[in-house]
Specification:
Helix content is 62%, strand content 17%. The protein has three helices and six strands; from the N terminus they run αααββββββ.
């Protein structure tokens, strides 16, 4: 009888497990599906985040390379700005010597030094702004005064008082000029 009780209780428990198993399995399957969907959504979010982060980093690298190239291109700006008054003084010395009618060895030496300065600046991308006789451009010229002229159209550079310079495509110092105005 004890064996019968064991068998009958064993069969009864087995039947209950068999009946509960399909319900539990389908609940477990639904729970598993929900977790898989949540994991897939999280994976997609992380993939999108990784792609955006990668794109942001690539853009950052490109921007850094561009900034470094710009910095290298314009690295001599401060030095050139400090040298421009020296070149102006050499020009003034030559103009004064020419006005006095001197053409000796000292004047020739100053002219050679001036030419060397300009050559060194040119090799580093620093060039004078051509202004004489050109139309006035406020990006390149600084008008000091206007002078009536019947020989030139209005807003034409009549005289350059101080040469302007640019480094590559940037103005280092605008040219100080006298601009023509319509005659009265």
């Amino acid at each position: 009888m004890a064996e019968m009780n064991k068998n009958s209780s064993g069969n009864g428990a087995g039947e209950q497990t068999a009946e509960a198993s399909p319900k539990t399995a389908s609940a477990d399957l639904e729970s598993l599906r929900a977790r898989v969907e949540a994991a897939e959504q999280e994976r997609d979010q992380f993939r999108n985040l990784a792609q955006r982060s990668r794109a942001d980093f690539e853009n950052y690298q490109k921007r850094q390379q561009k900034e470094q190239a710009q910095e290298k291109l314009y690295a001599n700006t401060r030095l050139a700005g400090d040298l421009l008054p020296l070149i102006d003084n050499l020009e003034r010395a030559l103009a004064a010597a020419s006005k006095a009618g001197e053409a000796g060895a000292l004047v020739q030496g100053v002219a050679i030094v001036q030419a060397q300065f300009l050559d060194v600046l040119r090799r580093h991308g620093i060039t004078p702004i051509e202004a004489q006789g050109k139309p006035f451009d406020p990006n390149l010229h600084q008008a000091v005064m206007q002078q009536p002229s019947a020989d030139h159209p209005p807003m034409t550079v009549l005289q350059v008082l101080e040469n302007g310079y640019q480094i590559h495509d940037r103005v280092l110092r605008p040219a100080s000029v006298i601009v023509s105005a319509a005659p009265q």
